[in-house]
Design brief:
The complex is a heterodimer. Chain A is an all-beta fold. Helix content of chain A is 0%, strand content 53%. In chain A, strands 2, 4, 5, 6, 9, 10 and 11 form a 7-stranded mixed beta sheet that branches. A 4-stranded antiparallel beta sheet of chain A has the order 1-3-8-7, with no helix packed on it. The termini of chain A are far apart. Chain B is globular, with a radius of gyration of 14 Å. Chain B has strands at 4-7, 10-14, 19-25, 32-38, 44-51, 56-59, 62-67, 72-77, 86-93, 103-105, 109-114. By secondary structure, chain B is mainly β. Chain B is built from no helices and 11 strands. Classes of the chains: A mainly beta, B mainly beta. The A-B interface holds A 4, 31, 33, 35, 42-45, 48, 50, 54-58, 88, 90, 92, 94, 97-99, 101-107, 109 and B 31-32, 34, 36, 41-46, 49, 51, 89, 91, 93, 95-108.
Chain lengths: 113, 115
């Protein structure tokens, strides 16, 4: 069974631009969560989607948004990029709406210059 | 507000040693606790999941325990090998206002096992 895939793996953007990251969960998984990892703040929860609905949201500004499609694939968007948005963005998928094991993808490394 | 702390922050041991990584959390109302491994620049690999009703889980040379009432978990690694060198992360799932999947991570323990 294929794991969680994320595209692209690496991105370089300029301040003020916007970016869209994609995540394909493990087949059959319906919950997709997004996390930001930085050296200073560690791993922080961004949001979680289940059956195309956002269920939880972390403490990030409105520039960070996401969505989930009917096939459970998810995208996250960051608008008006800032230097501080440079990070490793990780996606995790889980089977059901209860607390099952979460599986992470390889991440997208975003660099904002 | 749930907070997760991992001690020590870094650990260097010779190959073959048994070692213990510690994780503590402030709110005992959790669904489960998960241990991960992260190699430099890579994603997270799930090692063990302990549900809130369980006391421990084992996988190969790894054993994780959970004491929910005291807010503690330990990851025991037996007979360490150089390939175990990585950062080990503890995460508690306290859920959120809308659902069950919200992990709060500790800062990790960076482990180096030297031959």
């Amino acid at each position: 069974k294929a794991g969680v895939t994320q595209t692209p793996r690496y991105l370089i953007k300029t301040r003020g631009q916007q970016v869209t990251l994609s995540c394909s969960p493990i087949s059959g998984h319906r919950s997709v969560s997004w996390y930001q990892q930085t050296p200073g703040q560690g791993l922080q929860f961004l949001f979680e989607y289940f059956s195309e609905t956002q269920r939880n949201k972390g403490n990030f500004p409105g520039r960070f948004s996401g969505r989930q499609f009917s096939n459970s694939r998810s995208e996250m968007n960051v608008s008006t990029l800032e230097l501080g948005d440079s990070a490793l963005y990780l996606c995790a998928s889980s089977w059901m709406d209860t607390a099952y094991e979460q599986y992470f993808g390889p991440g997208t490394r975003l660099t904002v210059t | 507000k749930q907070e997760v702390t991992q001690i020590p922050a870094a650990l260097s041991v010779p190959e073959g040693e048994n070692l213990v990584l510690n994780c503590s959390f402030t709110d005992s109302a959790i669904y489960n606790l998960q241990w991960f491994r992260q190699d430099p620049g890579k994603g997270l690999t799930s090692l063990l999941l302990i549900q809130s009703s369980q006391r421990e889980q084992t996988s190969g040379r790894l054993n994780a325990s959970l004491d929910k009432s005291s807010g503690r978990s330990t990851l025991y690694i037996a007979a360490s090998q150089p390939g175990d060198s990585a950062t080990y992360l503890c995460a508690v799932n306290s859920g959120g206002s809308g659902g069950y999947n919200k992990l709060i991570f500790g800062a990790g323990t960076r482990l180096a096992v030297h031959p």
